């Protein structure tokens, strides 16, 4: 019975922390929804014209999407902190301080990835796609399509830019090491190239603007893993 108590306590603690994360996400989404008009105006400035909607359902769909993205951004540091609190009993004092540094890093890298995609990649790709229709179509851009195109590009970059922190954490646990990452370099480059080609228009400049940051992130991850592995040994 005494052996099962710690397990039950861990399960209870995990459930409590998941509830905190879920509550944070829900509350953040409500707050973002209250200010969604401002978010909409800020993000629609690349459209170049007033966006159309096809029905009232589009309005709700767009506002929910934008509120959800804002809520995820707010929830990331809270989720990271709750994960840290969950594993902190098993860590030494030095490891606790190092793990605590992951929280702001995750948040800042997520925002940096979103910003890079929104301010650099999205305008380029949006104008490229519009240029394909010049003289051939009567173009009517719906707000739903505009924001779907934007989020499908920006959200993956927000997550991909957290790769160095994830590698650092896994290297700290001993799951990854620089030798393994170096051996995976060629297939990793291939995967990153496929990702860049998939989410960008079919021109060399757009592919280059995507693949270069992703490769740099991977190389940074290898350096981070090498540094952490050296400290462990």
From TrEMBL:
Keywords: Cell membrane, Membrane, Protein transport, Translocation, Transmembrane, Transmembrane helix, Transport. It is a multi-pass membrane protein. Its main location: membrane. GO terms for molecular function: proton motive force dependent protein transmembrane transporter activity. Part of the twin-arginine translocation (Tat) system that transports large folded proteins containing a characteristic twin-arginine motif in their signal peptide across membranes. The keyword Transmembrane helix applies. The keyword Transmembrane applies. GO terms for cellular component: TAT protein transport complex. PROSITE patterns: TATC. The gene is tatC. Pfam families: TatC. Belongs to the TatC family. NCBIfam families: tatC. It comes from Brevibacillus gelatini. It is found in: Cell membrane; Membrane. This is Sec-independent protein translocase protein TatC. GO terms for biological process: intracellular protein transmembrane transport; protein transport by the Tat complex. Forms a complex with TatA. The chain crosses the membrane at residues 18-42, 62-84, 105-126, 146-175, 187-204, 210-228. InterPro entries: Sec-indep_translocase_CS, TatC.
């Amino acid at each position: 019975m005494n052996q099962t108590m710690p397990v039950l306590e861990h399960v209870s603690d995990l459930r409590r922390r998941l509830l905190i994360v879920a509550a944070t996400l829900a509350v953040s989404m409500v707050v973002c929804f209250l200010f969604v008009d401002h978010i909409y105006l800020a993000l629609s400035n690349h459209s170049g014209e007033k966006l159309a909607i096809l029905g009232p359902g589009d309005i709700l769909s767009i506002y929910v999407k934008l509120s959800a993205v804002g809520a995820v951004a707010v929830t990331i540091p809270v989720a990271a902190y709750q994960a840290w609190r969950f594993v902190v009993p098993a860590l030494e004092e030095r490891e606790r301080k190092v793990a605590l540094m992951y929280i702001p890093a995750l948040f800042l890298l997520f925002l940096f990835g979103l910003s890079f995609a929104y301010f650099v990649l999205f305008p380029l790709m949006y104008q490229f796609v519009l240029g394909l229709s010049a003289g051939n179509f009567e173009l009517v851009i719906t707000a739903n399509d505009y924001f779907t195109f934007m989020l499908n590009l920006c959200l993956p970059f927000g997550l991909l830019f957290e790769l160095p922190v994830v590698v650092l954490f896994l290297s700290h646990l001993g799951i990854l090491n620089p030798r393994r990452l170096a051996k995976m370099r060629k297939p990793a480059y291939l995967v990153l190239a496929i990702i860049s080609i998939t989410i960008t228009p079919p021109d060399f400049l757009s592919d280059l603007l995507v693949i270069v940051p992703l490769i740099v992130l991977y190389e940074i991850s290898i350096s981070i893993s090498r540094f952490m592995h050296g400290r462990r040994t």
